[in-house]
Amino acid sequence: MRNVLVLLAGLGIVVSTLALREHYRTEGDSPCSINERWDCGIVNHSPYAVVKGTGIPVAVLGIVGYLFMGALAWRRAYRFLLAVVLAGLAYSLYLAHIESTVLGVWCIYCVISLCDISLITLLALGTSVAALSGKSSNMPA
Length: 141
Fold this sequence. Notes:
Elements: H1 2-24, H2 40-44, H3 58-74, H4 78-103, H5 108-137
Helix pairs in contact: 1-3, 1-5, 3-4, 4-5
């Protein structure tokens, strides 16, 4: 399971890096400007693309977060990983809400990241539950 989680964290780093590149793009059209409902440029240049009051792009949080998740998965620290991914999932769902209701535009990178963090969450939850049930079955009655 460790290798799958590390691979998924790597995917998150890639899509977060692409979103960060889009955040700093100043010339030309966004490569993921598909139509009026799908445009990464609009999303990544909106005020919601930075952490309020810090100026730090949200995509940087994604890169750092996925790096941390990958490190926790590599160390098989699944309970800690679960706590981190639940926080990441909550923030990603908040950002999806912003895209849907406030901006009215979706970013393909953000949607891929949401799917990625959702899958990591399910796998971390399953791994944590399996580890706990394995420990409880080894306990004397």
